[in-house]
């Protein structure tokens, strides 16, 4: 099995002090860009939270960008990232490339209003959380109550950031609800669709400005990964 670490490109920079090498994610962090390109678990959440807190400490006035291409994952880990996004002082821009499914869609919508973007052929998915339990009947009941509480909280967050009534969110997330970029914009999960290479890093920030063409991005049709994005949330 290929070690993922071996696939991460290294970037070499030449300065007056000589050459320095960075992995690509560290180089992006230098431009205040955080990339979420894997399923969301506790380890990924800890890394993203640490990056957010680090960038806040570096400069609380400069914006932060989070680029997202993720099938979602752990609700608890995702909510930890979401809370940190709301906690830090810099504005947080979110940009979807490829897929923002499940918990990743919540993070996409959780960026600062007016700073949530998508490329034209991305797909966005919302649905209710899922989990499997075993054990004594009382324990199963406790866990069932917890997942219902979590679902209510996710519905509240999506309603807050989309402006839609919570009843609409609850109905739409009853089953897998796929959206094209244009549909996600109309739904309120993103603010604008960008095409081409807009300016990134104005005044030292990593925020993608929609200086390039905006498009209307229609539905991209059925996805090829079947519904594998609906793992947990």
- Termini Cα gap: 27 Å
Indicate the overall shape: globular
- Average predicted local confidence, pLDDT: 85
Q: What is the chain-wise order of helices and strands? A: EEHEHEHEHEEHHEHE
Please identify the top-level CATH class. Alpha Beta
Radius of gyration, taken over Cα atoms and rounded to an integer in Å: 18 Å
- Secondary structure tally, helices: 7
Number of DSSP strand runs: 9
Q: What would you give as the CATH superfamily? A: 2-enoyl-CoA Hydratase, Chain A, domain 1
Structural class computed from helices and strand pairing: alpha/beta
Q: Using the coordinates shown, work out and report the CATH topology.
A: 2-enoyl-CoA Hydratase, Chain A, domain 1
The parts where pLDDT drops under 50 for at least 5 residues are 199-206, 210-231
Q: What kind of sheet is the major sheet?
A: 7 strands, mixed
Helix content: 25-40%
**How many domains is the backbone divided into?**
1
How much strand content do the residues show?
A: 15-25%
CATH architecture label name: Alpha-Beta Complex
């Amino acid at each position: 099995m290929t070690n993922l670490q071996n696939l991460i490109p290294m970037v070499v920079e030449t300065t007056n002090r000589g050459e320095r090498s960075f992995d690509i994610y560290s180089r992006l962090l230098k431009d205040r860009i955080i990339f979420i390109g894997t399923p969301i678990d506790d380890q990924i959440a800890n890394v993203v939270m640490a990056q957010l807190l680090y960038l806040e400490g570096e400069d609380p006035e400069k914006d932060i960008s989070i680029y997202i291409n993720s099938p979602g994952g752990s609700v608890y880990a995702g909510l930890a990232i979401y809370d940190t996004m709301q906690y830090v002082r810099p504005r947080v821009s979110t940009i979807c490339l490829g897929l923002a499914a499940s918990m990743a869609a919540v993070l996409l919508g959780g960026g600062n209003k007016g700073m949530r973007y998508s490329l034209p052929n991305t797909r966005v998915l919302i649905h209710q959380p899922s989990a499997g339990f075993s054990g004594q009947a009382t324990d199963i009941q406790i866990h069932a109550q917890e997942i219902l509480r979590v679902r209510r909280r996710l519905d509240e967050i999506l309603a807050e950031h989309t402006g839609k009534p919570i009843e609409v969110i609850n109905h739409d997330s009853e089953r897998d609800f796929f959206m094209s970029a244009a549909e996600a914009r109309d739904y309120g999960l993103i603010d604008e669709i960008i095409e081409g290479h807009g300016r990134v890093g104005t005044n030292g920030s990593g925020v993608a400005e929609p200086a390039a063409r905006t498009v209307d991005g229609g539905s991209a049709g059925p996805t090829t990964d079947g519904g594998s994005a609906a793992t947990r949330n």
